[in-house]
């Protein structure tokens, strides 16, 4: 009897939170919510790069459709996974913002074909070096992860602000009272629906607020559905529509720097969503996620898209809704694929005004910051230099957020790496954590003012009222004989 092995049963087998299956309707509802949250971001990059490359409106439309399709395939690969590919976490994938400036520069020298060639070659190199990145998990303790998660939220807040103002800084109504009021109304709807006692309504608060905000915008004449019927209903991806990619050494090296930044940011997002979901992320899982990122980025140009990366705003949505199932996000990936095959559906979603997205984004992106602060609250700050690590890293990451032109006079590769607040804070946090917590040789036994700062203070006047034998127990004060001492409330006399 003592030697018998107990066979695990479905009840005793541990189930990861991300493996929860909610059913078809819930998957569709929450999946749509994920797509609506990131739709504006995923179409922004092809619009910007296409216009910079001088493409026609029809070709820019193909870039947008291709980006939706590629993002959907990448999301399914990341969430469902294949052997050695996919972290199996609720991460939405899409066109990465990190490479916009670099791709515009490359397109100006060699056209859109040079951009696609650089993306393919640099992503292949990135795929080959993922084993190195997969071993950095021990350098991402809660200290580093909390710094990065907090900075992700701070980095996204200006995006929410621009969306709330209208999205297009060249538009006459950018920053108008009507745009900001619409964003404010959407924000209010999110908060009110979140307060509703019904769990389903509360979890769908973002989606319902987007629908309600769009309806209000339509009634106020701030959105137009007339263009929904223009264009084809179904359109299959066109393989190498823009011609065969070209490969230039300088373009590939420039894009490889973007790939390095993407690897850092994706690592941060994987750790962030793992922390939010409450599941283990080891080096193997991180490596699978990074390989999925690089494979998706390498194949995306075949259909006319660019580098793929996790969308940080959807990490915030996981935190807001509490829906941790990866199958929800996989369903969202399938919806993205459908949008890529059915342009008319994409045109419907495109009618959501930017201020509506901005109102919802304030909650989503703020939640990412709050999640980072919650992680940092678990860090020990006594007798070490963790406080200065947090202060320096977040300050370093905030610089390019507050002053985007901060690195404009530096070489392009410096701008590419440090223009992102996320990569700036991540690199600084990793380096300082190594300096102070791993390579401890030379560390002073007496912490600096940052490490020695007291976390609690007691007024001397209060201390002078104590007598020998007084003690505090279960919220009450007693003297040496066990007699309770009256405690005055704060501000009492």
- Category from helices, strands and their pairing: mainly alpha
Taking all Cα atoms into account, the compactness measure Rg is 26 Å
Number of contiguous helices:
18
Provide mean pLDDT, rounded: 81
Q: How is the biggest beta sheet arranged?
A: 3 strands, antiparallel
Order of helices and strands: HHEHHHHHHHEHHHHHHHHHEEE
Residue share in helices?
55-70%
Shape: globular
InterPro entries: NCS2 (IPR006043), UacT-like (IPR017588), Xan_ur_permease (IPR006042)
Subcellular location: Cell membrane
Transmembrane segments: 24-48, 60-77, 112-133, 140-160, 180-197, 204-222, 242-264, 327-346, 352-373, 385-404, 416-436
Family: Belongs to the nucleobase:cation symporter-2 (NCS2) (TC 2.A.40) family.
Structure, described:
With 493 residues, the chain is mainly alpha-helical. It has one domain. Helix content is 62%, strand content 3%. The chain has 18 helices and five strands. It has helices at residues 24-52, 57-80, 100-133, 142-165, 177-195, 199-203, 205-219, 249-277, 283-303, 312-321, 326-341, 343-349, 354-376, 386-402, 412-418, 421-438, 449-452, 460-464; strands spanning 93-95, 308-310, 471-473, 476-478, 484-485. The strands form two sheets. A three-stranded antiparallel β-sheet has the order 3-4-5, with no helix packed on it. The chain has a two-stranded antiparallel sheet with strand order 1-2. Helix 8 (249-277) packs across helix 16 (421-438) and helix 11 packs across helix 12. The longest helix has 34 residues, at 100-133. The protein is globular, with a radius of gyration of 26 Å. The N and C termini lie far apart (70 Å). Mean pLDDT is 81; it is low at 1-6 and 8-13.
């Amino acid at each position: 009897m003592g030697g018998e092995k107990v066979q695990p049963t479905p009840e005793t087998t541990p189930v990861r939170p991300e493996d929860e299956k909610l059913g078809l309707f819930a998957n569709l509802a929450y999946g749509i919510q994920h797509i609506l949250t990131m739709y504006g971001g995923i179409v922004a990059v092809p619009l910007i790069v296409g216009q910079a490359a001088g493409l026609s409106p029809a070709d820019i439309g193909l870039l947008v459709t291709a980006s939706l399709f590629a993002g959907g395939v990448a999301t399914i690969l990341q969430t469902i996974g294949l052997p050695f590919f996919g972290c199996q976490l609720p991460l939405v994938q899409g066109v990465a913002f990190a490479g916009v400036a670099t791709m515009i520069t490359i397109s100006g020298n060699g056209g859109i074909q040079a951009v696609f060639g650089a993306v393919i070659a640099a992503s292949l190199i990135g795929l080959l070096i993922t084993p190195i990145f997969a071993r950095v998990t021990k350098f991402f303790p809660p200290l580093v992860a909390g710094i990065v998660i907090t900075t992700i939220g701070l980095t996204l807040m200006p995006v929410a602000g621009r969306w709330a103002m209208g999205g297009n800084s060249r538009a006459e109504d950018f920053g108008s009272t009507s745009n900001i009021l619409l964003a404010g109304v959407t924000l209010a709807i999110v908060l009110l629906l979140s307060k509703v006692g019904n769990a389903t309504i509360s979890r769908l608060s973002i989606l319902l607020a987007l629908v309600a905000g769009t309806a209000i915008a339509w009634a106020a004449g701030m959105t137009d559905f007339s263009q929904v019927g223009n264009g084809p209903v179904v359109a299959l991806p066109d393989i190498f529509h823009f011609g065969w990619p070209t490969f230039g050494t300088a373009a590939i090296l420039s894009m490889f720097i973007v790939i390095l930044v993407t690897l850092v940011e994706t690592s941060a997002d994987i750790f962030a969503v793992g922390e939010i979901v409450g599941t283990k992320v080891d080096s193997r899982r991180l490596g699978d996620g990074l390989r999925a990122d690089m494979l998706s980025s390498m194949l995306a140009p075949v259909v006319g898209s660019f580098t793929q990366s996790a969308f940080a705003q959807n990490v915030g949505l996981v935190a807001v809704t509490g829906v941790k199932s990866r199958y929800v996000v996989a369903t969202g990936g399938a919806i993205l694929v459908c949008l890529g095959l059915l342009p008319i559906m994409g045109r419907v979603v495109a009618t959501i005004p930017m201020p509506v997205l901005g109102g919802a984004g304030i909650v989503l992106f703020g939640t990412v910051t709050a999640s980072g602060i919650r992680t940092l609250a678990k860090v020990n700050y006594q007798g070490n230099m963790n406080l200065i690590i947090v202060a320096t890293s977040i300050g370093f990451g905030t610089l390019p957020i507050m002053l985007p032109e901060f690195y404009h006079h530096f070489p392009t590769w410096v701008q590419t790496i440090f223009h992102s607040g996320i990569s700036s804070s991540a690199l600084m946090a990793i380096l300082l954590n190594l300096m102070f917590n791993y390579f401890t040789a030379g560390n002073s036994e007496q912490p600096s003012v940052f490490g020695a700062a007291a976390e609690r203070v007691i007024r001397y006047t209060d201390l002078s009222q104590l007598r020998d034998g007084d003690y505090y127990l279960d919220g009450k004060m007693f003297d040496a004989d066990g007699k309770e001492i009256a405690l005055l409330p704060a501000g009492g006399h």
